[in-house]
């Protein structure tokens, strides 16, 4: 590596965790995904509507609302769990009690809402105990920059019967949101997707795919693709910083050499307490995201915890030996593919440190035989490249900058374009008739903050 950096490369398997059993309140007591159930729902809705037409009372409207919500759930195929039934019954009892106490409007609302509660969508539980199986499939997946992010501990998984392929997903408000492409044996992907869609149908979940690659669009023929950006993938063996177009990149890297920055690579699971304390301090000194985590489809969690196998860190030290920044990378394809997870740097770190860390990581991975290194995901590059934006693109350009407090996409793109490595497009696959509720679901998955759990070290405690 440049400047005599050292490489410590060690990938260990995570401890096997015991899978949690199904909680009693999640047990399905009524399956409604049948033609007979749909007929019953339609008939009940018709009777309630007829009653309203004849009676024209508040009570008739209350019953119609409850029946309509139940019928909607039936037509969506949502099963009824024990928890749903108990809560719905409680809402009905509370509604009658409110009527007895002369709180008629409150009682009507409670009774009407019992239909919503009864047919509330079920959810899939996170499965962190599946990490050993998922890591094995990530190691078998090449050419997919987002494959390592399937390991995120908040995700659920759907495997083929023989466990050779899997889909990572999360559920929210009745939608099963698939994270990227399937992982594992691509010969099983068609079968896997068909079985996954069938499973979602029995649970009343509607399928959405966030971050589907161009080459996997054919797996989801019933969903409409909407482009959201492009991968940035370096051809490791061919990468050279030569020519006029790499001038800005060379200058940024040279600035860090001039101020005495050196780099080294370590495996996250092999960090010493001293290194862990140093890097935790860098993370907490970073401009954004120190105390919280965000993201779903193209990011991992658990920075510095050593929870995930196949994670490498490249550190940048100044002349005094103080760590000024580090990048976190994840491996896939048995080491053929390397993907940047998150970069961290101190606020006062020298300019060009991110470029230096990326370039040194590319060189180190070239020496280890890697084929591809993905730097990040370039969202909406066409909008940022367009200097003569029309009204529509100007609207989206302004809307994108409203989210700069969460992620400065244009600043990220200016960094990425120095590498001239825009790759394949990625898409959101969705039914266009449900764009508005899906915006809420997808934005909440990507941007709602979660508390970051940092490791505690001897050095940080004694300090």
Automatic annotation (TrEMBL):
<dbReference type="InterPro" id="IPR051211">
    <property type="entry name" value="PG_lysyltransferase"/>
</dbReference>
<feature type="transmembrane region" description="Helical">
    <location>
        <begin position="82"/>
        <end position="103"/>
    </location>
</feature>
<keyword id="KW-1003">Cell membrane</keyword>
<feature type="domain" description="Phosphatidylglycerol lysyltransferase C-terminal">
    <location>
        <begin position="139"/>
        <end position="428"/>
    </location>
</feature>
<keyword id="KW-0472">Membrane</keyword>
<feature type="transmembrane region" description="Helical">
    <location>
        <begin position="58"/>
        <end position="75"/>
    </location>
</feature>
<dbReference type="InterPro" id="IPR024320">
    <property type="entry name" value="LPG_synthase_C"/>
</dbReference>
<keyword id="KW-0812">Transmembrane</keyword>
<dbReference type="GO" id="GO:0005886">
    <property type="term" value="C:plasma membrane"/>
</dbReference>
<protein>
    <recommendedName>
        <fullName>Phosphatidylglycerol lysyltransferase C-terminal domain-containing protein</fullName>
    </recommendedName>
</protein>
<dbReference type="Pfam" id="PF09924">
    <property type="entry name" value="LPG_synthase_C"/>
</dbReference>
<feature type="transmembrane region" description="Helical">
    <location>
        <begin position="35"/>
        <end position="52"/>
    </location>
</feature>
<dbReference type="GO" id="GO:0016755">
    <property type="term" value="F:aminoacyltransferase activity"/>
</dbReference>
<keyword id="KW-1133">Transmembrane helix</keyword>
<dbReference type="GO" id="GO:0055091">
    <property type="term" value="P:phospholipid homeostasis"/>
</dbReference>
